[in-house]
Amino acid sequence: MRPSMLRSMESVLRRAADARYFSSGAGPERKVAILGAAGGIGQPLSLLMKLNPLVSQLSLYDIAGTPGVAADVSHINTAAQVAGFAGEDQLGEALKDSDIVIIPAGVPRKPGMTRDDLFNINAGIVKSLCTAIAKHCPHALVNMISNPVNSTVPIAAEVFKKMGTYDEKKLFGVTMLDVVRAKTFYAAKAGVPVADVNVPVVGGHAGITILPLFSQATPSANSLSHEDIKALTKRTQDGGTEVVEAKAGKGSATLSMAYAGAVFADACLKGLNGVPDVVECSFVQSNITELPFFASKVRLGKNGVEDIHGLGPLSDFEKQGLESLKEELKASIEKGIKFAKEN
Q1: Given 75, 205, 226, 309, which residue is catalytic?
Q2: Which stretches in the chain have pLDDT values below 50?
Q3: Is CATH 3.40.50.720 what the domain over 3-173 is classified as, yes or no?
């Protein structure tokens, strides 16, 4: 490879590290642990967190393969110190003193598999990992990526309650990929710069429980028809399936999920460091609706959740979508709670 090409690649990575999605400048030392770091989401997520200048320690854990991932990522010339841990006997050391724990662990979806099909496998993994978090870093912010998020977040809550460490302000279901997709699809349809777009996404993180609020999108695009909005909503809800089918049995949404996970983790770091007005959508314990957990805009701060925003004005289409999602989301939440209590 020519030197000019190498310099160009390094420049791109540097710009990625300095992009508006990642924090800049010095701050308190922060340890971030990634559980499932050797997986399809975990590896690119580890790379992106190594680029974040607010991460001083990056702890990578998986049941196997992590030392190699850690060695690879550690060669990147950014400040974060990287350590790799493999096997249950090293989980406690991986978690110790973590400020944020990100959990992408679990099996991915395959063609024809719904998020619900993942439940029995991933539920057990999440329960085990959260038990360890309660023991070794009970005050950490927990970012749950493992699907189905609508059920795994309630499982985590029940585990933490049983262990006496539950803090509703510190448990997050990462629904950022729904926001990322909504922004991307909306910008393309509306013909506006994607970097300027914001679209809140509420509800849950599966199928019809994903409700993008395009009526609140900025910049507004009055040229979009009702049919356009319906199509954009459907595509956002089916984004995961779109990727699974496109990969033809060889993977799921790993790269875009890793990016979304890194963006949300960065928002958490900003909040911990006292940056004002950090607001992102997340699936959290909430009284915004009659459901115990619900995704909406959340202001992040030094304690995790500082404030949960209301839904704001909804279009008739969105009001209908809100009512339609409640039964399915309620069932998923109850399924997670039941699993945690019975196992």
Answers
A1: 205
A2: 5-6, 9, 12-14, 16-21, 25
A3: yes
Annotation-wise, does 287 bind a ligand? no
User: How far apart (Å, rounded) are the C-alpha atoms in residues 323 and 202?
Assistant: 12
pTM for this prediction: 0.92
pLDDT for the residue numbered 265? 98
- Which helix (H) or strand (E) element contains residue 73? helix 66-74
CA trace torsion 23, 24, 27, 32 (10° rounding): 40
Instruction: Tell me the residue type at 330.
Output: K
Phi and psi angles of residue 284, each rounded to the nearest 5 degrees, phi first: -135, 165
Q: Tokens at residue 14, please? A: 């540097």
**What pLDDT was estimated at residue 109?**
62
Write out pLDDT tens, residues 188-246: 999 999 999 999 999 999 999 999 999 999 999 888 999 999 999 999 999 999 999 99
Task: Spell out the domain ranges in the chain.
Answer: 3-173, 176-342
Integer CA distances (angstroms), 258 to 39, 193, 210, 312, in order: 11, 22, 19, 29
What pLDDT score was predicted for residue 17?
45
Distance CA 32, CA 103 (A): 11
Kindly state the helix (H) or strand (E) to which residue 83 belongs, with its residue range: strand 81-86
Q: Is 75 a catalytic residue?
A: no
Residues listed for the chain: 343
State residue 187's pLDDT score.
97
Known binder of ligand: residue 106? Answer: no
Domain 176-342 carries which CATH code? 3.90.110.10
Task: Read off the tokens for 284.
Answer: 């959290």
* Residue 38 known to bind ligand: yes
Determine if residue 42 is labeled as part of a ligand binding site: yes
- Pairing of the two strands 210-212 and 201-203: antiparallel
Neighbouring C-alpha atoms within 13 Å toward the C-beta of 62: 21
Report which secondary-structure segment, H or E, holds 173: strand 171-173
Contact 170, 140 (CB under 8 A): yes
Is 115 annotated to bind a ligand? Reply is yes
H-assigned helices in the chain: 3-18, 42-51, 66-74, 91-95, 119-136, 149-163, 176-190, 226-237, 239-246, 255-272, 316-342
In this predicted structure, what is the pLDDT of residue 18? Answer: 46
